[in-house]
């Protein structure tokens, strides 16, 4: 058995599985994993870990034995996994195999799907058999504290704030760790040379979300007012130019959901100018679009904005704690459509909706000057997995987390809706994936759905 190394010479394996892009949707764009490289940068930027060895393992396919062989060959004493919906089953299988081969190996999980409620799902129980700790929030500072521990044992884990620890009978949460508020102290993977040349660039201007919609796991209200400075963002943009990024994906919950962060982003781009040279992908919340947002979009010239609509039914939105402002929605969509390309995003199989209500929403969305994308509802950690209502009778696939049935939707209705979406999308010249359907912008027309929306708004 390998002896554990000292903190200053610790060997740390970081593990993820980047999915191959859907060529039907994104062509040949390179979309590298970003969150795990944030963790990598944090470790590299910690002076107390200057002599530690850190290596990223990302095979991009679920080859469990190859992952295990590569990781064990590195001889780590700490392994950190970053998991998302698409990678969780494979990464958990890798962790189980590592624990079987090296029982003393310290294993920690983080990422959007790393939540105790997720590990409690039947395919992934019991968590204590293959992991030591879960990070359920920002991971950059906590991973460094873990890596500096003199010993990687249970007593040490319990002294680290912000961890969720598995036991044979449930979960133990250590003392609460406040979110990172001084965001500029978070190390950049671009500054550390960890991002590949020619890949899509990822940008954050703030974290969390001031909203708390039940179907969304974007973040929490707790830290949504903090922002990265204009200087930090400008350095990121300059690094994107050096790497010849073909596009920039804004990771924020919305371009306009944190006014301070937005203004820092706008100022940073005025200094750097890179967003005028590439394509910006971002989400924008329609009901609070201001003139300064429209002016920024015109300044950068090329953007593709996702507009979260989800449903046209105010009652459905209220069920999911989604604020709605029907009178402003259509005006905002038209204002945005005059200055850039927008995509209306709606969700099929939302609890409390019905197939009939969903198709009214789709018809209304298709009547507006925008392309439309439909997503199959997912039962995500920090969202419907833990914030669903009991009366919704949610049933879902524990591997893909796709909704199978719920209030308003039988399994047969779900199957029929999926088939109809595929038929309509392809007939309209759009595209269909496994859990998404895309419709190109249609010639504008007045529809019954639009009339229904306006009647609902008037009420």
TrEMBL record:
<dbReference type="Pfam" id="PF04055">
    <property type="entry name" value="Radical_SAM"/>
</dbReference>
<feature type="domain" description="B12-binding">
    <location>
        <begin position="11"/>
        <end position="157"/>
    </location>
</feature>
<keyword id="KW-0408">Iron</keyword>
<dbReference type="GO" id="GO:0031419">
    <property type="term" value="F:cobalamin binding"/>
</dbReference>
<dbReference type="GO" id="GO:0003824">
    <property type="term" value="F:catalytic activity"/>
</dbReference>
<dbReference type="GO" id="GO:0046872">
    <property type="term" value="F:metal ion binding"/>
</dbReference>
<feature type="domain" description="Radical SAM core">
    <location>
        <begin position="195"/>
        <end position="412"/>
    </location>
</feature>
<protein>
    <submittedName>
        <fullName>Radical SAM domain protein</fullName>
    </submittedName>
</protein>
<keyword id="KW-0949">S-adenosyl-L-methionine</keyword>
<keyword id="KW-0479">Metal-binding</keyword>
<dbReference type="GO" id="GO:0005829">
    <property type="term" value="C:cytosol"/>
</dbReference>
<dbReference type="GO" id="GO:0051536">
    <property type="term" value="F:iron-sulfur cluster binding"/>
</dbReference>
<keyword id="KW-0411">Iron-sulfur</keyword>
<dbReference type="InterPro" id="IPR007197">
    <property type="entry name" value="rSAM"/>
</dbReference>
<dbReference type="Pfam" id="PF02310">
    <property type="entry name" value="B12-binding"/>
</dbReference>
<dbReference type="InterPro" id="IPR006158">
    <property type="entry name" value="Cobalamin-bd"/>
</dbReference>
<dbReference type="InterPro" id="IPR058240">
    <property type="entry name" value="rSAM_sf"/>
</dbReference>
<dbReference type="InterPro" id="IPR023404">
    <property type="entry name" value="rSAM_horseshoe"/>
</dbReference>
<dbReference type="InterPro" id="IPR051198">
    <property type="entry name" value="BchE-like"/>
</dbReference>
<dbReference type="InterPro" id="IPR006638">
    <property type="entry name" value="Elp3/MiaA/NifB-like_rSAM"/>
</dbReference>
């Amino acid at each position: 058995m390998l002896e554990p190394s000292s903190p200053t010479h610790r060997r740390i394996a970081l593990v993820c599985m980047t999915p191959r892009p859907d060529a039907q949707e994104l062509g040949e764009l390179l979309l590298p994993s970003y969150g795990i490289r944030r963790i990598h940068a944090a470790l590299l930027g910690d002076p107390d870990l200057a002599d530690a060895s850190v290596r990223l393992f990302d095979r991009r396919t679920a080859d469990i034995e190859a992952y295990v062989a590569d990781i064990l060959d590195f001889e780590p004493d700490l392994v950190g996994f970053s998991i998302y919906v698409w990678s969780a089953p494979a990464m958990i299988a890798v962790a189980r195999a590592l624990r079987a081969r090296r029982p003393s190996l310290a294993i920690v999980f983080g990422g959007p799907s790393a939540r105790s409620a997720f590990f409690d799902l039947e395919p992934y129980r019991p968590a204590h058999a293959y992991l030591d700790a879960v990070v359920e929030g920002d991971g950059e500072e906590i991973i460094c504290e873990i890596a500096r521990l003199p010993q990687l044992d249970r007593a040490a884990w319990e002294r680290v704030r912000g961890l969720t620890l598995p036991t044979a009978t449930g979960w133990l949460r250590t003392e609460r760790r406040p979110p990172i508020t001084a965001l500029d102290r978070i190390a950049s993977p671009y500054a550390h040379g960890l991002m590949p040349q020619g890949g899509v660039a990822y940008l954050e201007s703030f974290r969390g979300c001031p909203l708390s919609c039940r179907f969304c796991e974007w973040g929490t209200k707790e830290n949504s007012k903090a922002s990265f400075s204009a200087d930090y963002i400008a350095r990121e943009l300059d690094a994107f130019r050096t790497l010849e990024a073909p596009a920039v994906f804004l990771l924020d919950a919305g371009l306009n959901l944190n006014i301070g962060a937005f203004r820092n982003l706008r100022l940073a781009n005025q200094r750097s100018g890179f967003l005028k040279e590439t394509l910006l992908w971002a989400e924008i919340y329609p009901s609070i679009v201001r003139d300064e947002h429209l002016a920024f979009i015109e300044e950068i010239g090329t953007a593709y904005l996702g507009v979260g609509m989800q449903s046209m039914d105010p009652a459905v939105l209220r069920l999911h704690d989604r604020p709605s402002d029907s009178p402003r929605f259509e005006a905002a969509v038209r204002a945005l459509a005059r200055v850039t390309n927008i995509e209306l995003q709606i969700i099929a199989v939302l609890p409390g909706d019905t197939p009939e209500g969903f198709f009214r929403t789709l018809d209304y969305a298709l009547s507006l000057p925008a392309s439309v994308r439909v997503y199959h509802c997912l039962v995500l950690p920090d969202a419907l997995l833990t914030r669903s209502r009991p009366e919704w009778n949610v049933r879902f696939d524990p591997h893909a987390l796709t909704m199978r049935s719920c209030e308003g939707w039988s399994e047969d209705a779900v199957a029929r809706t999926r088939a109809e979406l595929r038929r309509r999308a392809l007939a309209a010249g759009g595209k269909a994936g496994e859990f998404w359907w895309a419709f190109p912008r249609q010639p504008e027309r007045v529809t019954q759905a639009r009339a229904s929306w306006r009647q609902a708004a008037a009420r």
